[in-house]
Design brief:
This protein is of the alpha/beta class. 26% of the residues lie in helices and 34% in strands.
Length: 143
C-alpha cells in the first residue's frame, strides 16, 4: 500500500494537468529509514511526448545524487498518461528498475478510469496497490 500525504498527491495531479497534453514526470523522495514519501521533485520530460516520458539524464543524475546525500530513496516515481488509462505501458514495465519504489500513474485523459493508481513493478510483474492519503504522518510515527 502506498501511504502518501494528500498535499503530495494534489501536487502531482496539478503538475500533470499543467503539463497536459504532454506526459509529466517526477519523483517523491523520502528518508531511507521510513520510506515515507516527503519531498516532491518535479522533473522535466526530456521526450516532451504525449505518449512517453523520459527523465532528462543530467537532471536524473543530479536528483539521485541529492537523494543519496540526504540519505533518501525514491519512494515514488510518477508520470502521467494523457491518452490512455493509468496502467503501466509495456515501456513503463521494461524501464521500471526500482523494485522498492511505488510507480504512480496519473491519468489526465477523459473517460479512461481513475485519475491516480499505484503499482509495484518487480521483475516485469505488475501489482496494483491501494493508495491511502493522510494529512500528516504523525499517527504513523507515533504508533
Amino acid at each position: 500500500m502506498l501511504i502518501i500525504l494528500s498535499e503530495l498527491l494534489d501536487a502531482m495531479l496539478q503538475q500533470a494537468r499543467n503539463d497536459h497534453p504532454r506526459e509529466t514526470c517526477g519523483v517523491i523522495a523520502g528518508p531511507r529509514a521510513s520510506r515515507l514519501p516527503t519531498r516532491l521533485v518535479p522533473m522535466r520530460n526530456s521526450a516532451s511526448s504525449e505518449t512517453f516520458f523520459q527523465f532528462d539524464a543530467q537532471e536524473h543524475l543530479k536528483v539521485w545524487r541529492e537523494m543519496e546525500a540526504l540519505d533518501e530513496v525514491p519512494c515514488v516515481i510518477y508520470h502521467s498518461h494523457t491518452h490512455s488509462a493509468a496502467y503501466p505501458s509495456r515501456a513503463d514495465i521494461l524501464l521500471a528498475g526500482e523494485p522498492q519504489t511505488h510507480y504512480v500513474i496519473l491519468c489526465t485523459a477523459e473517460g479512461h478510469g481513475p485519475s491516480v493508481r499505484s503499482f509495484r513493478i518487480v521483475d516485469h510483474q505488475v501489482t496494483e496497490e491501494a493508495i491511502r492519503t493522510m494529512e500528516t504522518y504523525s499517527r504513523l510515527k507515533n504508533g
